[in-house]
């Protein structure tokens, strides 16, 4: 069978129509090594095989191999074969020459204004694991072996359609299982046909804003709010109107000058502050949406992880046929890299947005969804959430104790409801929370500055601290590193 290396060398030989054969083959191999096409320690074909596939004599190949071996480009291992050397003699020289030769050919990049704005306000962390990164569950505690067993069972007799795109907005089995779960756990009113499976909240917001907003339409967002929502909406040309959040959640204005096309809220556990929206505010938002013809987009963020008190029902289920687009995700209850979320659409929007989703994103992974449906239906999903709720409650208490022990009760934000996977550590106004977070991140402690979640010019100062993925006994050492960053004078304003 012809190897890829032989194909590569044949192309390099064809680029050198002139010259003696052994010199052309030598140049073909040497240049392939130097430009990385043949990476260090990659195996070269045996001389006999290479000669046969290139239709040259074996003596020619042996001569070239001997020269490359003598010059240090390749190494020979008895009984194993011939390999590219770990380092080659003139790799640095070649790299420098190549860079100087190609530098003038680099095309200047011109981004759109929206693209430049996105990069200017990007906040995604280059590291997604560690103390005290907010929004990350303990992925090691998930019963991966159990889900894998279910997946293997489902995969034994798969249906042909499970290997294609989904024409129904996701697996029908998963839609049914989610409907049954959400009806009991979150008081959501829906049918399976109203559920659309997405690749997370970002995709859901992108779809909704593209399909329901024209450029320049207004969307209300919470102040502060998750930066990811802002970025997606602004990329789609939506005008943002931040609405202040207090202890009762988003506080809608009495006079509405520009009716909002979309209203984005996290009523069960406001992100990032953590408050719960009052019933009076929920009813006001529903009335505004009905009066203006707009839609409420409810992100049921961290709703599963409430550590005391009664469960808070979803805004979507308060009234029949509510003008609410309900979104959820498995990122916190299972693991973020799963990239599975869902949207419960009002009846009037369901088929339209499912069709648009199929046109824009071409969803698939139906076998994964079928396995997840069985995982939910067999009770494993709710059992896992109950177990993690107890574990996270202990870790939350440990972090609360550390904050009050070292910084006092005043350092705990009054917004911290007894729910979610992070706490807000308050800072005084003279602290620069962005500089503190940057300094802590450099020391391996991953916190996020609260001020980055505000659009206005009067942000609160603080740090978002996740506790879900940290063992209790590991918290104090990391907290003391953070404490040193907070008290360090040269990072204060």
From TrEMBL:
Signal peptide: none annotated. Keywords: DNA-binding, Pyridoxal phosphate, Transcription, Transcription regulation. Residues 19-87 form the HTH gntR-type domain. CDD domains: AAT_like, WHTH_GntR. Gene3D superfamilies: Type I PLP-dependent aspartate aminotransferase-like (Major domain), Winged helix-like DNA-binding domain superfamily/Winged helix DNA-binding domain. In the C-terminal section; belongs to the class-I pyridoxal-phosphate-dependent aminotransferase family. This is GntR family transcriptional regulator. The lineage of its organism: Bacteria, Pseudomonadati, Pseudomonadota, Gammaproteobacteria, Enterobacterales.
């Amino acid at each position: 069978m012809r190897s890829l290396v032989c194909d590569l060398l044949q192309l390099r030989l064809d680029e050198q129509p002139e010259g003696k054969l052994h010199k052309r083959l030598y140049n073909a191999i040497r240049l392939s090594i130097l430009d990385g096409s043949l990476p260090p320690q990659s195996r070269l074909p045996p001389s006999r095989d290479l000669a046969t596939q290139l239709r040259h004599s074996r003596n020619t190949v042996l001569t070239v191999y001997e020269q490359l071996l003598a010059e240090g480009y390749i190494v020979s291992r008895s009984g194993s074969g011939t390999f590219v050397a770990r380092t080659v003699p003139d790799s640095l020289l070649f790299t420098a020459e190549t860079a100087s030769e190609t530098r003038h050919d680099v095309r200047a990049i011109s981004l759109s204004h929206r693209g430049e704005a996105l990069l200017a306000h990007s906040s995604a962390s280059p590291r997604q694991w560690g103390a005290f990164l907010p929004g990350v569950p303990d992925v090691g505690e998930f019963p991966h072996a159990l889900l894998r067993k279910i997946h293997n069972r489902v995969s034994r007799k798969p249906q042909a359609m499970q290997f294609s795109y989904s024409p129904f907005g996701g697996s029908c089995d998963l839609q049914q299982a989610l409907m049954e779960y959400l009806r009991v756990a979150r008081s959501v009113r829906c049918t399976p046909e109203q559920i659309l499976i997405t690749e997370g909240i970002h995709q859901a917001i992108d779809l909704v804003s593209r399909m329901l907003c024209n450029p320049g339409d207004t969307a209300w967002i919470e102040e502060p709010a998750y930066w990811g929502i802002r970025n997606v909406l602004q990329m789609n040309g939506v005008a943002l109107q931040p609405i202040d959040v207090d202890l009762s959640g988003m506080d809608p204005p009495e006079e509405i000058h520009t009716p909002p096309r979309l209203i984005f809220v996290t009523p069960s556990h406001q992100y990032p502050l953590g408050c719960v929206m009052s019933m009076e505010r929920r009813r006001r938002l529903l009335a505004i949406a009905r009066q203006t013809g707009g839609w409420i987009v409810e992100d049921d963020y961290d709703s599963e992880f409430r550590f005391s008190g009664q469960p808070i029902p979803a805004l979507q289920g308060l009234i029949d046929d509510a003008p609410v687009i309900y979104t959820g995700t498995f990122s916190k209850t299972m693991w973020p890299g799963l990239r599975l979320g869902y949207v419960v659409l009002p009846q009037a929007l369901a088929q339209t947005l499912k069709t648009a989703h199929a046109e824009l994103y071409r969803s698939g992974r139906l076998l994964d969804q079928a396995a997840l449906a069985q995982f939910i239906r067999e009770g494993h999903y709710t059992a896992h959430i109950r177990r993690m709720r107890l574990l996270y409650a202990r870790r939350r208490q440990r972090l609360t104790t550390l904050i009050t022990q070292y910084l006092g009760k005043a350092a705990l934000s009054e917004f911290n409801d007894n729910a979610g996977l992070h706490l807000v550590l308050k800072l005084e106004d003279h602290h620069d929370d962005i500089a503190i977070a940057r300094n802590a991140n450099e020391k391996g402690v991953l916190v996020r500055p609260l001020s980055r979640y505000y659009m206005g010019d009067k942000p609160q100062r603080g740090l978002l601290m996740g506790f879900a993925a940290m063992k209790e006994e590991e918290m104090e050492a990391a907290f003391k590193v953070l404490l040193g960053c907070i008290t360090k004078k040269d990072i204060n304003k």
